Automatic annotation (TrEMBL):
Protein name, as recorded: Cytochrome c1
Parts of the chain that traverse the membrane: 237-255
Major localization class: membrane
Sample GO molecular function, one term: heme binding
Binding locations of heme c: C69, C72, H73, M192
InterPro entries referenced in this protein's UniProt entry, alphabetically: Cyt_c-like_dom (IPR009056), Cyt_c-like_dom_sf (IPR036909), Cyt_c1 (IPR002326)
Names of required cofactors: heme c
Keywords: Heme, Iron, Membrane, Metal-binding, Signal, Transmembrane, Transmembrane helix
GO cellular component, one term: membrane
Leader sequence residues: 1-31
Length: 264
């Protein structure tokens, strides 16, 4: 009986630890050969055990994605209906989805056709296929951004740093043709030109001043939410599990003391 209780407590403790684990590995530094890149700590609202997503920032981030990033990058794991998770209501999602045309079919004549998107549709891809994407980007394939925050070491800090890390190469550094210098990208040469290159590039609907750093923070917040929309619920479950285990542990200890008090 005691062994069974111990095993249960260990298993529950592991489950709680996994629930409270951060979504991405802390990328304080990245190694590329002998080159170590130190990422700035951006201090996002969703950092830490009790962190939550800033819905206003995530909505602005979606606006940045829609107006800037979606020209090259897809988000095929997301449907328009998922945007209710950043605070949009059903009417707003319906109106937003209807702005896009998606391919459907075949119809009764066996032909494919386009129609306005519905909330249940996945985000529209900017290119028909990978070959078309490479042809439009000098051979480089823009990655899907659905889970990019979890796919890169450093997570949100890395993506934010990448977006603000474009600058002129230092003296003596030659950048290959078609490449761009970025101080936070491994190897420092990246095919993607700076997507956020000037303050005011996006006019925010809520009136927030759209500096390059603000836009980078907002779109990273949106991408972090997209990669793990259940983060807040998972953390809340973890906290409840810790409270439960604390109470259960206290009760188990009290029962043990009571049962064994007269057995000497």
């Amino acid at each position: 009986m005691r062994l069974g209780l111990t095993s249960f407590l260990k298993g529950a403790a592991i489950a709680a630890a996994l629930a409270l684990a951060p979504a991405a590995v802390d990328g304080g530094a990245r190694a590329q050969g002998h080159d170590v890149i130190h990422l700035p700590d951006t201090k996002f609202t969703f950092d830490g055990v009790f962190g939550t997503f800033d819905r206003a920032s995530a909505q602005r981030g979606f606006q940045v994605y829609k107006e800037v990033c979606s020209a090259c990058h897809s988000m095929r794991q997301l449907s328009y209906r998922h945007l209710t998770g950043i605070g949009l209501n059903a009417t707003q999602v319906q109106a937003l989805a209807s702005q896009f045309q998606v391919q459907d079919g075949p119809n009764d004549n066996g032909e494919m056709f386009e129609r306005p998107a519905r909330p249940s549709d996945r985000f529209r891809r900017p290119f028909a296929n990978d070959a078309a994407a490479r042809a439009a980007n000098n051979g480089a394939l823009p990655p899907d951004l659905s889970v990019m925050v979890k796919a890169r070491e450093g997570g949100a800090d890395y993506l934010h740093a990448l977006l603000v890390g474009y600058e002129e190469p230092p003296p003596g550094v030659t950048v290959a043709n078609g490449m761009h210098y970025n101080k936070y990208f491994p190897g420092h040469q990246i095919a993607m030109a700076a997507p956020l290159n000037t303050d005011g590039q996006v006019t925010y609907a809520d009136g927030t001043k759209s500096t390059v750093d603000q836009m980078a923070t907002d779109v990273t917040t949106f991408l972090a939410w997209a990669a793990e929309p259940e983060l807040e619920q998972r953390r809340a479950l973890g906290v409840r599990m810790v409270i439960f285990l604390t109470i259960l542990g206290g009760l188990a200890y009290a029962v043990k003391r009571k049962v064994w008090a007269n057995l000497h």
